[in-house]
Amino acid sequence: xxxxxxxxxxxxxxxxxxxxxxxxxxxxxxxxxxxxxxxxxxxxxxxxxxxxxxxxxxxxxxxxxxxxxxxxxxxxxxxxxxxxxxxxxxxxxxxxxxxxxxxxxxxxxxxxxxxxxxxxxxxxxxxxxxxxxxxxxxxxxxxxxxxxxxxxxxxxxxxxxxxxxxxxxxxxxxxxxxxxxxxxxxxxxxxxxxxxxxxxxxxxxxxxxxxxxxxxxxxxxxxxxxxxxxxxxxxxxxxxxxxxxxxxxxxxxxxxxxxxxxxxxxxxxxxxxxxxxxxxxxxxxxxxxxxxxxxxxxxxxxxxxxxxxxxxxxxxxxxxxxxxxxxxxxxxxxxxxxxxxxxxxxxxxxxxxxxxxxxxxxxxxxxxxx
Length: 370
Fold this sequence. Notes:
Blueprint: H1 6-15, E1 36-37, H2 61-64, H3 76-93, H4 95-106, E2 114-122, H5 129-138, E3 142-149, E4 154-160, E5 179-185, H6 192-204, H7 212-218, E6 220-221, H8 228-237, H9 239-247, E7 253-257, H10 268-277, E8 290-291, E9 297-301, E10 306-310, E11 316-320, E12 323-329, H11 354-360
Parallel strand pairs: 1-6, 2-5, 7-12
Antiparallel strand pairs: 2-7, 3-4, 4-5, 8-9, 9-12, 10-11
Helix pairs in contact: 3-7, 8-9
């Protein structure tokens, strides 16, 4: 059973100030697999308007330091406590990620910074990107480019963090704020049978989409547990759909920013070798090292852990959980003249790459369903 620390309790009280006269209620129903089920409350949403793009999402210092840079909004300590709770749930469920973070940190006492946090959503009934993005927009994040993955029936948006003075000294969730990558399954492109399953649970969830951040911070599903047969049916058609059905708004992965490390592991090839020598398996889809066409964004990831999940029909089966990613962002050519000590994050390749991300998605392809 997961135990939630005081920061999680504080998040619950701050996001949901219930009163005796309130007609809304939150009912947390724990089970032995560390999943919780959230019932209705009320929290206003915010819509997002996008421009469709299906190419590399690249940003330079002109964007980072120009009109698209924003300042932090609200209480920084509160926001970081939300990220910490999301991270805590993620680490409790994913021993590989926890072990690798500890190994990298112990190597010459390296300071770990996160490149980005990633989430998956259902693009139906208001459960898509908008539902998870709201918490980040509220605290000053800026919406950036859209990416499309037609073969997987997905789209994604990424969000750049607001500027915070003196954040470079910390590590993990207390260091530089991570980018955020939120993807969405285009449910209406699935078979009628798959759509029916997804719509069934999102509709049963009621207003659960308005509590995405709380669900992620508590490790909660906002809908009831599905039948194992429903999970199997989705998995045959879309691994992404099956994963989201049993993991909900939980962190799909965190990403170590390798170039911010101080040791020889700052080069992602060295880090990959280090991890494999410790006995961990890397995602080999498209090659262990994924490289953007411009050669400036290098990424790799582990294969996802699995967790025992008790379905509503009483069956307990192993389902894919999350993984950990690594990203090295090289200096943009126009800043190549800068001495290494003067290079900042905004001098490096920003954004995401469709080709890289498409293969990274497959880090949760840990099983075949008959």
